[in-house]
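Example S7 (structure tokens).
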């Protein structure tokens, strides 16, 4: 999850309402152009992946299909793997978690925000989300990178935890909490893809985070 977006109005404390505000908030013309280019690159990449496979789909082919230069591709995605593993939702997640009550347990905040955000993403982008997770589950380099934490929100979650605790540096306990939440998101996504997306992804994530809370 990825490139920061412009500052947005601070949402209310209502989690569902604030998430709606964040998802629906208008983008500037520059942001819309950048988002359009990213979406075009992803759309063409996933089409090519489906037609000719992961290995045969080069960055040059993706860029040509999206009618941009390879250098433009690399301005948006450092690697081909980043195109699959990254998205635009980290700023929404961070802002929504910050909107929760400061004295609320972090797992409660994360569960409310992540489940709500995943539900919206799945409703809007189900086919692409499933294709992304199928690729991640089936391509060894993607799966390994996802499992070792690359492209995952561990760092962002740790920053939020440290900020909420009023500390300059994270403690061991905060690092473990951030890693556990990120792992729950990763493993739930892979489980969902491995099982043919038969279950509702948001419901699975809610179940996973509830399990963490009950440990």
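Recovered sequence:
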């Amino acid at each position: 999850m990825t490139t920061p977006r412009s500052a947005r109005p601070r949402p209310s404390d209502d989690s569902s309402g604030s998430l709606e505000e964040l998802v629906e908030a208008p983008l500037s013309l520059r942001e819309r152009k950048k988002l359009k280019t990213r979406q075009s690159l992803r759309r063409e990449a996933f089409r090519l992946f489906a037609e000719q496979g992961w290995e045969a789909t080069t960055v040059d082919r993706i860029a040509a299909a999206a009618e941009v230069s390879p250098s433009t591709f690399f301005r948006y995605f450092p690697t081909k793997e980043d195109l699959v593993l990254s998205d635009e939702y980290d700023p929404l997640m961070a802002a929504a978690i910050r909107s929760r009550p400061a004295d609320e347990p972090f797992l409660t905040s994360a569960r409310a925000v992540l489940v709500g955000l995943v539900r919206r993403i799945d409703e809007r982008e189900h086919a692409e989300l499933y294709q992304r997770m199928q690729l991640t589950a089936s391509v060894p380099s993607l799966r390994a990178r996802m499992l070792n934490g690359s492209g995952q929100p561990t760092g962002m979650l740790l920053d939020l935890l440290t900020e909420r605790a009023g500390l300059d540096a994270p403690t061991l306990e905060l690092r473990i909490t951030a890693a556990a939440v990120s792992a729950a998101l990763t493993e739930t996504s892979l489980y969902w893809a491995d099982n043919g997306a038969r279950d509702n992804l948001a419901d699975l994530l809610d179940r996973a985070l509830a399990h963490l809370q009950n440990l």
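Notes on this example. Confidence is low (pLDDT under 50) at residues 1-23.
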